[in-house]
């Protein structure tokens, strides 16, 4: 299975890269913290080397030994996994649910640093995230330019045009880093048209397309609002870099078109799954745009900083997003977060890991309804924007999955296909 390949090959590679990153920063740690920094780096590396060995030799999963606020919840979850194994011994790296051990690895990486001050706040994935952002400059420039041009006459758009622009930016946010190549077509005129041209070509690869449902939800919510009520959209973020910029542009569009009054962003409270967005990444991206020597990029950055200051954009990083639980457990494990999400008119879940947690990461029949696999997780109407990079997918038409499978055995893990999949929560 793809899970097996991930645990056998991908996770050890990621750990090796993390160890290598710490090695390369040794001098920086010494300059900042003296011998203490170097000692901390050595301890963290030894902790991570041990972790890599445990993983590769299928050792039992061990309880967390740090004092971080979520440690007790993780250890409870391990007990839960032990009870599931029906007395078949301890859960181990190759004999446990993929979602659990993968999340557990990232939590252990966090632990390796958190337990070793003064380097406890070092983000081992920061360089990769920054590199993705800088390598996508042309795409970011094109997107910001397109959006700022759109803003000039957004007030004059009729409903049909507004819907067209929403669909465009939803697809840009869906394809995230897949769209960057098509945006970077260079010249002024082709940048404006290239997002549209490439999006047209990508439509056949959107396997579930519920954009019409999103539109009617938003436009009806807007028509129903009174002076006292507001339309709130929550975005549960995925990757930093180019994808985050697409999410921010979509959010600005929702505000500027008055389809939403408030956007709440949910990121990770510590570095997670290599490129997931943390608060630092979120603020760093806006600062980078602000200081860009490109008029429309810096305009975006300045406006977005303004949205945060005005409180119409709010960033949250609840502990629950970096726990191994599927989302159907949220009401029980994190009732405060569940209650907060219930205030939203629409929840947009970005990316693959969110989809795995929404569906419980099970091997469902392709045609099982999305509503059913959410397993009573319905705090508010929600939508998954995801390109397929793991082998779980529901809500397809009869025969749709089998048909693709016949010609493309890797279709579920290639990132070539995407979904905009909606659940009304009623």
TrEMBL record:
Metal-dependent phosphatase that shows phosphatase activity against several substrates, including fructose-1-phosphate and fructose-6-phosphate. Its preference for fructose-1-phosphate, a strong glycating agent that causes DNA damage rather than a canonical yeast metabolite, suggests a damage-control function in hexose phosphate metabolism. Has also been shown to have O-methyltransferase activity that methylates glutamate residues of target proteins to form gamma-glutamyl methyl ester residues. Possibly methylates PCNA, suggesting it is involved in the DNA damage response. The keyword Manganese applies. This is Sugar phosphate phosphatase. It comes from Casuarius casuarius (Southern cassowary). Subfamily III proteins have a conserved RTxK motif about 40-50 residues from the C-terminus; the threonine may be replaced by serine or cysteine. One of its GO terms (biological process) is DNA damage response. PANTHER family: DAMAGE-CONTROL PHOSPHATASE ARMT1. InterPro entries: ARMT-1-like_metal-bd_sf, ARMT1, ARMT1-like_metal-bd. Keywords: Hydrolase, Manganese, Metal-binding, Methyltransferase, Nickel, S-adenosyl-L-methionine, Transferase. Residues 6-404 form the Damage-control phosphatase ARMT1-like metal-binding domain. Its cofactor is Mn(2+); Ni(2+). It catalyses: L-glutamyl-[protein] + S-adenosyl-L-methionine = [protein]-L-glutamate 5-O-methyl ester + S-adenosyl-L-homocysteine; beta-D-fructose 1-phosphate + H2O = D-fructose + phosphate; beta-D-fructose 6-phosphate = dihydroxyacetone + D-glyceraldehyde 3-phosphate. Its EC number is 2.1.1.-, 3.1.3.-. One of its GO terms (molecular function) is phosphatase activity. GO terms for cellular component: nucleus. Belongs to the damage-control phosphatase family. Sugar phosphate phosphatase III subfamily.
């Amino acid at each position: 299975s793809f899970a097996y390949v991930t645990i056998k090959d991908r996770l050890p590679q990621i750990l090796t890269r993390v160890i290598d990153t710490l090695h390369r920063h040794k001098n920086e740690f010494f300059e900042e913290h003296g011998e203490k920094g170097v000692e901390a780096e050595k301890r963290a590396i030894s902790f991570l080397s041990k972790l890599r060995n445990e993983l590769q030799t299928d050792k039992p999963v061990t309880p967390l030994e740090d004092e971080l606020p979520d440690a007790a919840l993780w250890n409870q979850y391990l007990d839960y996994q032990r009870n599931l194994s029906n007395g078949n011994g301890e859960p181990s790296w190759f004999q446990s649910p993929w979602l659990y051990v993968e999340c557990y690895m990232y939590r252990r990486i966090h632990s390796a640093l958190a337990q070793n001050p003064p380097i406890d706040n070092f983000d081992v994935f920061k360089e990769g995230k920054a590199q993705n952002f800088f390598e996508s400059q042309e795409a970011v420039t094109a997107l910001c330019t397109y959006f700022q041009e759109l803003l000039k006459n957004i007030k004059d758009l009729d409903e049909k045009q507004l819907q067209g622009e929403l669909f465009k930016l939803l697809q840009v946010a869906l394809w995230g880093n897949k769209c960057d190549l098509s945006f970077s077509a260079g010249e002024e005129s082709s940048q404006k048209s290239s997002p549209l041209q490439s999006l047209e070509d990508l439509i056949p690869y959107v396997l579930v397309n519920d954009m019409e449902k999103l539109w009617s939800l938003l436009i009806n919510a807007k028509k129903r609002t009174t002076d006292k009520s507001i339309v709130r959209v929550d975005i549960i973020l995925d990757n930093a870099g180019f994808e985050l910029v697409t999410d921010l542009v979509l959010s600005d569009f929702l505000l500027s078109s008055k389809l939403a009054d408030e956007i709440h962003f949910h990121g990770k409270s510590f570095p997670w799954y290599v490129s997931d967005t943390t608060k630092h990444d979120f603020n760093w991206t806006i600062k980078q745009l602000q200081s860009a020597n490109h008029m429309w990029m810096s305009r975006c950055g300045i406006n977005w900083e303004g949205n945060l200051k005005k409180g119409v954009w709010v960033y949250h990083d609840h502990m629950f997003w970096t726990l191994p639980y599927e989302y159907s457990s949220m009401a029980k494990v994190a009732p405060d977060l569940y209650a907060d999400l219930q205030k939203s008119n629409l929840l947009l879940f970005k990316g693959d890991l969110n989809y795995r947690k929404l569906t419980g990461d099970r091997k469902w029949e392709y045609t099982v309804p999305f509503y059913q696999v959410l397993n009573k997780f319905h705090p508010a109407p929600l939508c998954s924007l995801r390109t397929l990079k793991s082998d779980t997918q529901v809500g397809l038409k009869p025969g749709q999955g089998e048909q693709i499978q016949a010609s493309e055995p890797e279709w579920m893990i290639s990132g070539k296909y995407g979904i905009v999949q909606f659940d009304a929560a009623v």
